[in-house]
Amino acid sequence: MDNYKINIHYAKALMMLAVDMNCVDTVSEDMRLVQQVCAENRLLNKVFSNPTIKEAQKAAVVEDLFKGQISEVSLAFLRFVVRKRRAVSLRGIATAFVEMWREKNNVVLAEFVTAVDIDQQLLEEAKQKIVEYTGKEVEFNTRVDNRRIGGFYLTFDNKLYDDRISTKLIKLRNEFSRNEYESKIARR
């Protein structure tokens, strides 16, 4: 089972190692790759969480996946994590490390979800507004959600700006349902 405290402790250890070896940015990019691979591969997560699969086999999977893709420091750390029977926590550790890197480098993660492809000018305007609001650099994840009718929502720094049409329709429906003018006529 993935455990937040374990993820934080291992990520802190990796951060200390990366600082000592002067490769924090490289390890950060490596952990982003580990995070992405683990997020996109459900079978891999099942292998890591399966107690009947031996650590040597899990280590071989890690080796096959990441050797030549990430730095030797990061790969050695992943081997260590697997050897300590924490392979199931690889994604969480990678995520915690990237969050620490962002905090250390004064970067805020923003997610911009739209109904259609977003043009670069609008993205830059949103980025500038977030920089003004937070005083931090912005790292954007953009995504198109075809299920949306229109509009967008933007999340950053535990804030949400929701400008989706579906949200506006819900608000409008709620306003019509409590139409005060109509309720005053009914009381007479």
What does this structure look like?
- The chain has 188 residues and is α+β, with helices and mostly antiparallel strands.
- It folds into two domains: 4-103, N-terminal domain of the delta subunit of the F1F0-ATP synthase (Peroxidase, domain 1, Orthogonal Bundle); 106-181, 3-Layer(aba) Sandwich (Glutaredoxin), CATH 3.40.30.
- 62% of the residues lie in helices and 13% in strands.
- A four-stranded mixed β-sheet has the order 2-1-3-4.
- A hairpin with a 2-residue loop joins β3 (152-156) and β4.
- α1 (4-20) runs antiparallel to α5 (72-83), α1 (4-20) crosses α6 and α2 crosses α6.
Short characterization:
The protein is an alpha+beta fold. The protein is built from nine helices and four strands, in the order ααααααβαβββαα. A four-stranded mixed beta sheet has the order 2-1-3-4.
What labels describe this entry?
188 residues, alpha+beta, Peroxidase, domain 1, Glutaredoxin, 2 domains, four-stranded mixed sheet, 13% strand
Layout: helices, strands, pairs:
Layout (H helix, E strand, L loop, with lengths): L3 H17 L3 H17 L1 H8 L5 H12 L5 H12 L6 H15 L2 E8 L5 H15 L2 E8 L7 E5 L2 E4 L2 H13 L2 H8 L1
Parallel strand pairs: 1-2
Antiparallel strand pairs: 1-3, 3-4
Helix pairs in contact: 1-5, 1-6, 2-6, 4-5
Element pattern in H and E: HHHHHHEHEEEHH
Which structural class do the helices and strands define? alpha+beta
CATH fold description of the largest domain: Peroxidase, domain 1
Query: How many discrete domains?
Result: 2
Radius of gyration: 22 Å
- Say which CATH homologous superfamily of the largest domain is assigned: N-terminal domain of the delta subunit of the F1F0-ATP synthase
At the first level of CATH, what is the class of the largest domain?
A: Mainly Alpha
Beta-strand percentage?
A: 5-15%
Going across the major beta sheet, what is the strand order?
Answer: 2-1-3-4
CATH architecture of the largest domain: Orthogonal Bundle
Contiguous runs where pLDDT drops below 50 for at least 5 residues: none
The rough form would be described as: elongated
The main β sheet shows up as: 4 strands, mixed
Mean pLDDT: 86
Helix content: 55-70%
Number of helices: 9
